[in-house]
Specification:
Elements lengths: L1 H64 L16 H15 L4 E3 L5 E3 L6 E5 L5 E12 L3 E9 L4 E11 L10 E3 L3 E5 L2 E4 L8 E3 L8 E5 L2 E2 L3 E3 L5 H4 E4 L4 E2 L8 E3 L8 E2 L2 H4 L12 E7 L6 E2 L3 E9 L4 E4 L3 E9 L10 E5 L3 E4 L17 E5 L2 E5 L2 E5 L2 E4 L2 E3 L4 E4 L3 E3 L5 E5 L2 E4 L11 E2 L3 E12 L3
Parallel strand pairs: 7-10, 7-31, 8-11, 8-32, 9-12, 9-33, 10-13, 11-14, 12-15, 13-16, 18-20, 19-21, 20-22, 21-23, 22-24, 22-25, 23-26, 25-28, 26-29, 27-30, 28-31, 29-32, 30-33
Antiparallel strand pairs: 1-2, 2-4, 3-4, 4-5, 5-6, 6-35, 17-34
Length: about 450
């Protein structure tokens, strides 16, 4: 009996062991299956993330190609033509980078394609490892949409994002003086602010001339100086003589070089042509909404009164030998890229200026065209007399103040020419830019494209 009981116990133990072995084997099989699934899921996740990051890399490239230094639309382009101009500009950028593109029947720009994508990375055999293709399409008049598909060896992911039209945050009208060429202050000259010193801040490009700034004699700049030329200030700035100073100090502490270039807005002289309804100039010294036709080259030997708009066609040399009393705006219709000094406006006497807002009601909407005193792209401007206060910006291709020229400028002085702007003699210019929040009338900012990060989304795979 005892032997039988022991035998039964051994049988039970064997059975239990077999059950445990079966359970462990099942658990092991389950764990192996789970591990395999996890490995596969991790691989798929990694592949998906790689495809997504490839699409994001493509988006960054498109953003780079559309940045404002590459793609700029003149502000004069009508809103309904901006997309076409953007595509043309972007095509030029893509050509420079040797990127293939086409346009479809809807006018959408196709950068690469599924069969011929933009390759970001190749494998050891030279085959595409990471690539993308994109579609740029209009979003009404507001901007564009970009859809980008990133491709890897295993998967693809598609992203969508938007870009909106806008303008740069700063222009040259944020300065008292802005010049594409060097600035020369020689003698007893001064640039100062009426309210605060920063109203007389100076912006200089001077990319073609390493003598970017000269402040000599007893000359002074009350504000700061920003120079695009990347040279060292000690090499491209001359500060010497008696009491010469910049920012109130007789050193270069307030001079910055290698600054980012800012925008010179487009001077739309045609904006004022419709106001010149007083006929062509035929003589006399009282001018109301008058046009001086090209080639007239008038010389005013006596005092002149200008009311409304004086519209000067190019080519012309207009010489004001006497005093000028103006309630209005002087416009020269030259080319902002003409630096020849063929066209000139010369003010030898004193200038007395009142804003267009002082005109009577018969001048209609001209009274609202504030902020501009003299817009003359392509004209060399010369001032030799005192001008008290001028009510707006002075803009030309080449600007000089000499003799006893000086007074208060309610706005900025802008020189579109790469040639030096000269302030000599006893010329003191005081800038009153407080309260100015918009561009002077007649000037149009370039349109650039801004990335709208809030529009980013991933397109669901079908």
């Amino acid at each position: 009996m005892r032997t039988c009981k022991q035998s039964k116990r051994r049988g039970v133990a064997l059975f239990a062991a077999l059950i445990f072995i079966a359970v462990f084997m099942a658990a092991s099989a389950g764990m192996l299956a789970m591990s395999s699934q996890n490995t596969l899921a991790a691989a798929n996740l990694q592949a998906g993330n790689l495809a997504r990051s490839t699409a994001e890399s493509g988006l960054e490239l498109v953003r780079y190609w559309m940045k404002d230094s590459s793609v700029t639309i003149p502000g004069s382009v009508p809103e309904n033509e901006r997309y076409g101009r953007l595509v043309d500009e972007l095509k030029g950028v893509l050509d420079d980078h040797q990127i293939a593109y086409t346009t479809n029947d809807a006018g959408h720009l196709l950068i690469g394609s599924a069969d011929d994508p933009v390759v970001l990375e190749r494998d050891t055999n030279g085959s595409a490892k990471r690539s993308f293709y994109a579609t740029v399409s209009p979003n009404g008049l507001q901007g564009v949409n970009v859809q980008i598909t990133g491709q890897t060896e295993q998967l693809s992911r598609t992203l969508r994002s938007g870009f909106t039209y806008g303008t740069r945050p700063r222009t040259v009208f944020d300065y008292g003086v802005a010049t594409r060429g060097p600035l020369m202050l020689i003698g007893n000259t001064a640039l100062d602010g009426v309210t605060i010193a920063s109203e007389s801040d100076v912006y200089i490009e001077s990319l073609d001339n390493n003598n970017a700034l000269a402040v000599e004699g007893n000359s002074q700049i009350a504000g700061k100086v920003s120079i695009v030329n990347p040279g060292d200030a000690e090499d491209i700035v001359s500060l010497k003589g008696g009491q010469s100073s910049i920012g109130g100090e007789r050193n270069l502490t307030h001079v910055s070089t290698g600054v980012e270039a800012t925008e010179f807005p487009y001077p739309n002289t045609k904006h004022f042509e419709t106001y010149a309804t007083g006929g062509d100039y035929t003589g006399g010294s009282t001018l109301e909404n008058v046009v001086i036709k090209a080639g007239t080259n008038p010389s005013f030997t006596s005092d002149v009164t200008i009311t409304g708009v004086l519209y000067v066609e190019s080519p012309n040399v207009v010489d004001f030998a006497g005093n000028v009393n103006i309630t209005g705006i002087i416009v020269g219709d030259g080319d902002m890229n003409d630096h020849s000094q063929t066209n000139q406006m010369i003010f030898r006497g004193n200038v007395s200026s009142q804003s267009v807002g002082e005109l009577d009601e018969s001048f209609g909407s001209l009274r609202d065209e504030t902020g501009t005193f003299l817009m003359a792209p392509g004209f060399f401007l010369s001032f030799g007399g005192n001008f008290g206060t001028v009510n707006g910006a002075i803009v030309g291709n080449g600007v000089e103040f000499f003799g006893n020229a000086g007074g208060t400028i309610e706005g900025s002085v802008i020189n579109y020419s790469p040639e030096p702007m000269n302030v000599t003699g006893n010329s003191d210019l005081y800038f009153n830019r407080s309260g100015i929040e918009k561009l002077p009338s007649g000037f149009v900012q370039d349109v650039i494209i801004h990335y709208n990060s809030g529009s980013y989304s991933e397109v669901a795979s079908l």
